[in-house]
């Protein structure tokens, strides 16, 4: 289904051609003076030089061919040569009827669907999720959903950090605390216990304790490095402990991500990429890409066009140990082998940009990916507190993600209870739904690459550009539709008729922008564009609601038309928030 802007541009192009001018001048834009017109065409201004003719005269010739237009109720020339346009109410109503019948409300589905892997989440196991993990999870989840909606095969991978020094630290601290455990007995040959020798809360206490010790005690740190090395060499007792750590940790991670309405298709880990490293490194050596520099193995990745120095990509340290770069490159090898993706997108903190420049260049230079495979990096900004510094607890520590969610839910619960007489259990359930919208919309409404201030008071408000305001609008529409149904009305009856007032027409025009908004949001990896769109739709609906008697409208056909328009507005808003990763309650 064509977009409204496309149909208007086709009509303008045809008018330019009939008037003897290049049809390419027939481009239409949304008016920057909505008090004068809805759309405008500035093509006559651009064509004046080419045709050595006053733009007003060109525009006048073009408008002559729009007199019998099926689309425009008004096409008038204003000095020095702009064409001001208004859409016919009948045409707009017909367009919305087609849009409502279209499976994806005018969104074009990809003609050649791509396989896209999105690497987002990226937590280290054995550590609790904190607010620093929020942006990757929320942004990645939304881009995954948008990509699927436009027809691509999108695979989300959490890519767990499970193979680094933190594992050696945990094993070392456990050995100090419980040396009697069979995992530390080199002579033990039986089966290892099925139950982990720790709970998730114990595990989360062990890691920071061990990390602190390693910073102050070099002998302890060396012991942890050796434990990491032995784990990576496959020492049976340490592998059994590693399996326990993974099992306990991943169960908890899945619970926390589920609370954020974030889900992954793959729970791949750094350790999964380890088997690919030896062959990959050997191949890079054989091809002459990898060479020794001060004992380390590196690949040059600088390019002539660089404006700043890009250091070589290090594959192995002087002691033969692999690094994050090695693991990320081996993960690319694994992904190409398993999925042959057209694109791999990494949603990570923008401070990791240099790392990914090195990894991508190394992967291309050494032929790990085909030339046409796209490797892209969406670097997000920092989530800050009201003081403009990275978001912390009141005590100045890093806030756990589940504590942040609990704080927001409590804030929403209090607001719901203050405004309504409602059962506590119902209020709690609603608060969780609305609280999630506050967190996700608060984050996603900002351009991903920019830092933003996480303001709980503002994000949980039912007024302004917030998640709760969007949900309040959806619930208001649901309430009107339900009331009509309860009174015996049939929501299937009737059709969308031409607008009867300016606020209705404005709402109808806003709805037509859905398709281009979603397509642009995907192309630019920009969920904030969907947020901006649904805020405009919500404002347009609320203006229409306040100015129009809907259920008390006496003309039945007109009432049915209003309700059809409400149904489409609800569907578009609910589809949009699903793409952002949250939902609306039935009542508030």
From TrEMBL:
Reaction catalysis annotation: tRNA(Arg) + L-arginine + ATP = L-arginyl-tRNA(Arg) + AMP + diphosphate
GO cellular component: cytoplasm
Subunit text: Monomer.
SUPFAM superfamilies named among the record's database cross-references: Anticodon-binding domain of a subclass of class I aminoacyl-tRNA synthetases, Arginyl-tRNA synthetase (ArgRS), N-terminal 'additional' domain, Nucleotidylyl transferase
Organism the protein comes from: Blautia obeum
Broad class of enzyme this protein falls into: ligase
EC number(s) given by UniProt: 6.1.1.19
One of the GO biological process terms: arginyl-tRNA aminoacylation
DALR anticodon binding domain ranges (all copies): 470-588
GO MF annotations in UniProt: arginine-tRNA ligase activity; ATP binding
Protein name in the entry: Arginine--tRNA ligase
Matches recorded under InterPro entries: aa-tRNA-synth_I_CS, Arg-tRNA-ligase, Arg-tRNA-synth_N, Arg-tRNA-synth_N_sf, ArgRS_core, DALR_anticod-bd, Rossmann-like_a/b/a_fold, tRNAsynth_Ia_anticodon-bd
Keyword ATP-binding among UniProt keywords: yes
